């Protein structure tokens, strides 16, 4: 796997995490939090998610598309991506 592939997977998982967090926030507010939520999320969470992702099992898991947004350090479903 190339560095480009790893970064692509990271970006896709970060986008999944952002979408889920935005959806949960919308449920709490009973309205769409809007595009400003995306900017706030990036400022507050992007760096930590990047660090967590690259230290997680998800970063090297063959099943990252299913649940990689969780960025888990341990996972029963982990399958090494060769």
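Sequence proposed for the structure above (82 residues):
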């Amino acid at each position: 796997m190339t560095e480009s592939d790893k970064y692509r997977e990271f970006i896709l998982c970060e986008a999944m995490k952002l979408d889920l967090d935005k959806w949960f926030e919308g449920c709490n507010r009973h309205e769409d939090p809007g595009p400003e939520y995306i900017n706030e999320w990036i400022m507050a969470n992007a760096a930590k998610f990047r660090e967590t992702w690259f230290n997680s099992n998800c970063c090297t898991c063959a099943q990252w598309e299913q649940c990689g947004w969780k960025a888990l350090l341990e996972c029963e479903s982990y399958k090494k991506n060769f």
